[in-house]
Amino acid sequence: MKILITGTSSGIGRAAAERFLEKGHEVYGIDIQEASVSHINYHHYQADLRYDKLPKIEDIEILICNAGLQNSEDDIDNNLKATIRVAEKYSCSAKLRSVLFNASASARNGYEFPYYVASKAGVVGYMKNLACRLAPRGVTVNSLSLGGVLTSSNQTVIDDASSWKAIMDVTPLKKWMSLEEVSDWVYFLTVTNRSMSGQDILVDNGENDLNNTFVWPQ
Q1: Percent of the chain topping pLDDT 70
Q2: pLDDT for the residue 217
Q3: Segments in the chain forming alpha helices (H)
Q4: Alpha carbon of 213 to those of 9, 74, 106, 110, 198: distances in Å?
Q5: Contacts of 198 (CB under 8 A, 6+ apart)
Q6: pLDDT per residue as tens digits for the range 39-97
Q7: Does the pTM of the predicted model rise above 0.70?
């Protein structure tokens, strides 16, 4: 299948791209940074999703809107407006079968940076809107709201002993997700799943439902 993923130069986007490539799919990536994935079936486009002309990529079957920022006054433009811009362009593909958005557990509990929380809550709302519009075509549309993930963007708290202890104290499963585990969820929701749509899936090692606590060093 032809997969389009935004934000493939690092973190979750790169891990997801590598998972689909391992499974034999053709992957197209768009990122403001240069490519970090090297594979014969990977095609990279460097662009700012907010302003640059989006590349023409036909017959997309799976769209994964992953790109975004954290803790910036530009979070709404990057995480919400740019996401809508991408989804509206590529969801027109006649072969589309699934769309997945990278939201956040913060969209549920509000515990994080103000612009980030607002942007991700907006993504969840937009996901439901798109799910309604694409349902007559048989396209599933969902979002994945993750809690802590072991990525470089979270290194600030991962490397801070007191912050990490505070996080583990309120995380029932006493761990954060690996990028490999996130990729499992991405693959399941877009390829295996054919009947669930309009849902925001919370995966956070139990933290949100039992402890509404956001830990970040001052």
Answers
A1: 95
A2: 66
A3: 11-22, 75, 82-90, 106-109, 114-134, 155-158, 161-169, 179-187, 207-210
A4: 30, 24, 10, 10, 27
A5: 127, 128, 131, 132, 135, 141, 142
A6: 999 999 999 999 999 999 999 999 999 999 877 788 999 999 999 999 999 999 999 99
A7: yes
Q: Note the pLDDT tens digit of each residue in 188-208.
A: 999 999 999 999 999 988 877
- DSSP of 15-37: HHHHHHHHTT-EEEEEESSPP--
All domains in the chain, ordered by first residue: 2-150+176-210 (3.40.50.720)
User: Structure tokens of 76?
Assistant: 């709404």
Asked if the model's pLDDT at residue 212 lies above 60, the reply is no
C-alpha dihedral, 41 to 195 to 144 to 102, nearest 10°:
50
The answer to whether 199 and 127 are in contact (CB under 8 A) is no
Q: Three-class SS of residue 186?
A: helix
Q: If you ran DSSP here, which 8-state letter would residue 63 be given?
A: E
